[in-house]
Design brief:
183 residues; alpha+beta; Ribosomal Protein L22, Chain A; four-stranded mixed sheet; four-stranded antiparallel sheet; 12 strands; globular
Length: 183
């Protein structure tokens, strides 16, 4: 397995199941499938930093959930992942609050059609660093006059196909192969 190979684990919750209480168990299952071995998949969650496997810091992951789906990207390199179910609600207001001038100009030029592509790219980028959404969220741009960018500050942004009403983006130094695996 190459460092740039990334496994994407997808879980669709049953209609009557609350998703978040099961997240750590799903993460452990994904780690076992990725590594090919059972293990202690305890997660450390330092305040203000990315979570990591306490006993396997060489294995990196990023989680996201939206709608009925939980997704996890796993690799032997740092990464960030974001999934958003596309719902129409105050896209212009959210854009003005969170996006850079370049992103706002891009979205205005095409009537906010790519709002969720911009949002997931920004979220994946900040999840890569572990910083999350803060006052610097508008301090970088994932879109310019030519459209969505594939690289930001040396990191690769890759929009992945998912369901029609979802947007999914991955951020890593390099992305060669993305393998989809169901949980």
């Amino acid at each position: 397995m190459k460092t740039a190979d990334i496994h994407l684990f997808v879980y669709r919750r049953p209609w009557d199941q609350v998703l978040l209480p099961h997240s750590d168990g799903l993460l452990a299952r994904a780690a076992e499938k990725f590594s090919g071995r059972p293990g202690d998949w305890a997660v450390s969650r330092p305040r203000g930093e990315k979570p990591f496997f306490t006993h396997h810091p060489e294995l990196h992951f990023s989680l996201s959930h939206s709608g009925d789906f939980w997704v996890c990207a796993m690799a032997r390199q740092a990464l960030g992942l974001d999934l958003q179910q596309q719902r129409v609600h105050q896209l212009e207001r959210l854009s003005r609050r969170f996006f850079s001038r370049e992103e706002l100009a891009f979205l205005e030029s095409q009537d906010y059609q790519d709002f969720f592509s911009v949002w997931t790219a920004k979220e994946a980028f900040v999840k890569f660093s572990g910083q999350g959404i803060d006052r610097d969220f508008s301090g970088f741009s994932v879109a310019g006059p030519e459209g969505l960018l594939s690289r930001v500050q040396g990191l690769r942004l890759r929009h992945l196909p998912f369901l029609p009403d979802y947007a999914l983006c991955l951020c890593a130094r390099e992305v060669e192969t993305v393998l989809l695996r169901l949980l």
